[in-house]
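To whoever is on call:

I kicked off a structure prediction for a single chain this morning and the downstream step that reads the tokens threw a length-mismatch warning. I double-checked the sequence; it's 291 residues and nothing unusual in it as far as I can see. Pasting both halves so you can look.
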Amino acid sequence: MQQEEIIAFLDFVEEKMMNADTLGFSPDVLAVLGNVEAGNEEIEMLKFRIDQEILIKIFNIANSAYYGTLNKGAVHTFYEVVTRLGMSHTKALIILLALQLLARGDEKVEAVFACSFASSVLGKLLAQQMGLREDAAKRVELGGLFSEIGKMIMIIYKKLHAADDDSIDDVFIEKYSPYLAERIIDVFSLPDYLKTMVFQKGLGVEAGHITLPGIVRLAISFIRESFKKHRNRLLVEPLAVPIGFDRRMSLEYIIQEQFNAVGLGRYLTIGRGEKRLLPARESSKKDERLP
């Protein structure tokens, strides 16, 4: 395709996929979540305009240990969910979960969603381990979550509307899906910093630290490698939990609960990896102590 054709194609895909008939909800639902002046009742009423399966999963996420439920307590209203997750994060989840429902049964799309979701979880944990502020960790989390949305949309579009178009192959999708993601960010008034994260390909560094898009890329790269080696699964290898330690506070439990919250438990393996194929070699290092 020529450049003009690619731009026209992206225009068409955006128009075809980002509407109420396809998503299952009117895009103006998300406009409410983008309005900082929206009141408690206005936000609460949105739960009647969103698919109940999406709503349940978002509540599950907000009530997971990953968001500190053990310390903060459970949330019971949609307004509380939005307050805990943040408006941008809630918007992104609604879009992605709608696409997940639209592609139900398509293993390729679900694996892409699982990869981005896993990148989101790992990215936030990495940011926290690095001692970054919570607002920075949430940016990394949202960047990972949104990292593959363009790819998801293109794959679903091809399946629904262009199954015989050989020009829309994996190479084309990988190359141009970030441009589609950029459009979605604008359409739904999501934070501009997501554009940098979507287009980041290498390890971003600045002065003496790794940038937030760089952390997102680290998470994505690790998750992709794990999915490649372990048949579309994130392998988590925990050490034994110390006696008396509340397992619900352990990282493996927090990760597992988060995956289960959105029905992605089958994309996670917690346990030891492959056993050694050969016995450990005995040390042959000579005693170098002075006589």
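Update from on-call: the warning came from a stale cache, not from the record. Cleared it. Sanity check on the structure: Residues 107-129 form the longest helix (23 residues).
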